[in-house]
Design brief:
Structural class: alpha/beta
Largest sheet: 5 strands, parallel
Number of strands: 14
Order of helices and strands: HHHHHHHHEEEEEEEEEEEEEEH
Shape: globular
Radius of gyration: 28 Å
Length: 322
């Protein structure tokens, strides 16, 4: 009780200090501007979109031949309305941020969402190949059901492919919010601007980083801890980062990258190449090449030849001093 009274006494002072910290803060304060998209709404949209991508796997309703048409129509109707709102918010915010006036934000949002819905059948076809790649690439997988329900790589790739389509359509901010949600859940960080081909498999996945300008071909497999990153960042005469340039690796078809490998810069890993675990690469690799590091000088000690403890003399002998 006394602590509450003490806080009540100081509340105006503390509130004033927090409000003062907002003054002239144009980096971490968003006051008097258009509403931003909702993180909670984005997560809900992802879950509803997964129900469309994988009918019968997610959600609380049993889906069968008799009700699937109704359920999909109802889901898409609700998704359209809610997704339009979030896309509209991101467009309006971007216009304000760039000090430009957008007079057709709602129309643009609706056009983008319709174009996105038009891509869903093809997205399902691509994701089916990703699921097959995971099942064929992991002998521990017992079924496609297990892959869909349990594999973090499939969750991250599914969200990435949805976000990539929105990114390609020019939707600001929202795609990155989607992939960062997948990142927080799986430890797999895929920028929505990356281009990833079909039949893609991330095994285990934690710690994987795929940068914005990465290009990945078909039938590529990567393991946990792999980084496809940038080597350095070009800056202009004023010291500001130059954006939009290619700065991440290209992996051609049928490449395998093992755990812990780091590949930096706009290099190319040729078709069919294999990069071994913990390799650090900043240069291109020809097609069909296998890149590994020398085994470290391991030292083995035979622990079975430890010195045995000295046995103590029997009590009678110790007493006699022998």
């Amino acid at each position: 009780m006394r602590e509450e009274l003490r806080l009540t006494h100081r509340l105006p002072e503390l509130t004033g200090a927090v409000l003062e910290s907002y003054r002239d803060d144009h980096v971490a304060t968003h006051l008097g501007a258009e509403a931003l998209p909702s993180q909670r709404a984005v997560v809900e949209l992802i879950e509803d979109l997964r129900e469309l991508l994988f009918p019968g796997y997610f959600g609380n309703q049993l889906v069968d031949e008799t009700n699937v048409g109704y359920l999909v129509g109802d889901r898409m109707s609700g998704l359209y309305r809610r997704l339009c709102i979030q896309v509209w918010k991101t467009i309006r915010h971007e216009c304000k941020r760039l000090d430009s006036e957008c007079t057709h934000c709602e129309d643009r949002a609706e056009e983008m969402v319709i174009a996105f819905f038009e891509r869903l059948p093809e997205l399902r076809a691509v994701l089916r190949e990703d699921i097959v790649a995971a099942y064929d690439g992991d002998p521990a997988a017992k079924s496609y059901d297990e892959v869909i329900f349990c594999y973090p790589g499939i969750f991250a790739i599914s969200v990435y492919r949805l976000a990539h389509e929105l990114h390609h359509l020019g939707v600001p901010l929202l795609p990155r919010m989607m992939t960062e949600h997948a990142h927080s859940r799986t430890g797999i960080d895929i920028h929505p601007g990356a281009h990833i081909g079909r039949h893609f498999f991330i095994d285990h996945g934690t710690g994987v980083v795929i940068g914005e300008t990465s290009e990945i071909g078909t039938r590529v497999k990567i393991y946990q801890g792999v980084t496809l990153g940038a080597l350095s960042f070009a800056r202009d005469a004023d010291g500001r980062l130059i954006r939009g340039r290619r700065r991440h690796p290209t992996l051609e078809d049928d490449v395998t990258i093992y755990s812990g490998a780091t590949i930096l810069g706009p290099v190319t890993i040729g078709r069919g190449a294999t990069v071994g675990g913990n390799v650090w690469l900043t240069e291109s690799v020809p097609a069909g090449t296998r890149v590994t590091i020398d085994s470290p000088d391991l030292q083995y000690k035979d622990r079975s030849h430890r010195l045995q403890p000295v046995e103590e003399a029997p009590p009678a002998e110790r007493a006699a001093g022998t």
